[in-house]
Write a structure and sequence with these properties.
There is one protein chain. The chain is an alpha+beta fold. Helices cover about 40% and strands about 25% of the residues. It has a 9-stranded mixed β-sheet with strand order 5-4-6-7-1-8-13-12-11, sandwiched between helices. A hairpin with a 2-residue loop joins strand 9 and strand 10. It starts with a helix and ends in a 7-residue tail after the last strand. The protein binds malonyl-coenzyme A. Malonyl-coenzyme A (MLC) binds next to helix 3, helix 8, helix 9, helix 10 and strand 12.
């Protein structure tokens, strides 16, 4: 009879978990940021809120965003004009729409990740799914498993309403699963659609203006596994160490809540400063835990681009060279803040830059921020095969 220790030893993988493949997807409808305020106030019949329109124009102008993609386009909104009024009971209709569209967008991203991975979808052993756009069970994870043809024994976890830190959390869970289950191949999928909380403007609800100025729709998928199979699997980023930190007494700074009219969303104007005051301590603690003293400019950075000012603060605080946040800034510019999916787009951008021969450091940090305020941090090591992609 084997001992528990022997069983446990046999279960654990030898090497660290690594990102083995990445895929992303966005809905077809593209919104240009320069035109967005005119579009938004027209389609929600809100031209009379001239002051709010001016504010949205200022936010769009300063957002660092050029375009975003949305599922809820003008045609679909035309079929659901009640979505513009947060007082109307539209939650059922929004959940119905999201229940189909969220897993479909995730499936597009995941199919790309699986194709790059080079192994059949049936080899996926675990699925970790994060979305703020759900509201029923069985959830989008089960539908995604069915769309991809994953096997019925796949071990599923859904992270609901984790907001923008959901991508970081899902990747941390994937690391734990891969390192504690020999041979495990974890599919991480984050799929976010703003339709769950899209409203017209309302006096006194500046969150709605901010949300409409920076958030976009997108899905990111990652295959995570340890001990890559020679000649088939190519590690992109090894996941060296991960931490989660909650900033004390900030539970009211970023909040979401399902209401009869959809997802009610609040981001306080203090969020960038709160992050600025806490990020460096969090990074120092993380690196001290693994006994490494790092020069911030010697690392690559995958920071969740929650907003242009957040990136400016991180850059200034850490004294980063202007190129260090280029991947985060490009993702923000091309897609906006896609909540949990965004850090996956940033990882994708980083590996593309490296594949093009651009200088990307050997060691790096991924950080994502969400309700809590929660900071998810992961120390990454760029694997050699990045150069060959
Ligand atoms: C919105 C911005 C792009 C605007 O750029 P600037 O600050 O440079 O420009 P600015 O000072 O002229 O501000 C333009 C207007 O935006 C308003 N404004 C700024 N932040 C706001 C907020 N949180 N809520 C409501 N209004 C806000 C300002 O008061 C100002 O109004 P006026 O012009 O009338 O004075 C930036 O402030 C930014 O990047 N903020 C960070 C956004 C954020 O917190 N993201 C995290 C999302 S949550 C997330 O990522 C996690 C999650 O969801 O889980």
């Amino acid at each position: 009879m084997a001992t528990v220790q022997q069983i446990r030893h046999a279960q654990r993988s030898d090497g660290p978990a690594a990102v083995l493949a990445i895929g992303t997807a966005n809905p077809a409808s593209c919104m240009l940021q320069n035109d967005y305020a005119d579009y938004y106030f027209r389609v929600t019949n809100s031209e009379h809120h001239a002051d709010l329109k001016d504010k949205l124009k200022r936010i769009c102008k300063n957002s660092g965003i050029e375009r975003r993609y949305v599922h809820l386009d003008e045609e679909l909104l035309g079929a659901h004009p009640d979505f513009s009024d947060r007082a109307l009971p539209t939650l059922d209709a929004r959940i119905d729409m999201a229940s189909a569209a969220v897993p479909e967008l995730a499936a597009s991203a995941a199919a790309r990740a699986i194709a790059e991975w080079g192994r059949p979808a049936a080899d996926v052993t675990h699925l970790v799914f994060s979305t703020y756009s759900g509201g029923k069970a069985p959830s989008a994870d089960l539908r995604l498993a069915s769309l991809l043809g994953l096997r019925p024994t796949v071990s599923r976890t859904i992270l609901s309403l984790n907001g923008c830190s959901g991508g970081g959390r899902a990747l941390q869970l994937a690391k734990e699963l891969a390192e504690n289950n020999r041979g495990a191949r974890v599919l991480v999928a984050c799929s976010e659609l703003t339709l769950i909380g899209f409203y017209g403007p309302q006096e006194g609800r500046l969150d709605t203006i901010l949300g409409n100025g920076i958030f976009g729709d997108g899905a990111g998928a990652v295959i995570v596994g340890a001990d890559p199979v020679d000649c088939i699997e190519r590690p992109l980023f090894e996941m060296a160490f991960a931490t989660q930190t909650t900033i004390p007494e900030t539970e009211n700074e970023i909040t979401t809540r399902l209401m009869k009219g959809g997802l009610d969303f609040h981001v306080s104007i203090r969020v960038p400063k709160l992050l600025k005051s806490n990020i460096e301590r969090c990074l120092i603690d993380t690196f001290e835990s693994i006994g490494i003293s790092a020069e911030w400019n010697d690392l690559f950075w995958a920071i969740h681009p929650g907003g242009r000012v957040i990136l400016d603060h991180v850059e200034q605080l850490l004294g980063l060279g202007v190129e260090k946040l280029a991947a985060s800034r490009r993702v923000l510019r091309e897609y906006g803040n896609m909540s949990a999916a965004t850090v996956i787009f940033v990882l994708d951008e980083l590996r593309r830059r490296r594949a093009r021969g651009e200088e990307v450091a050997e060691w790096g940090v991924m950080m994502a921020f969400g309700p809590g305020i929660t900071i998810e941090t992961m120390v990454l090591h760029a694997a050699g095969s990045l150069k060959e992609n």
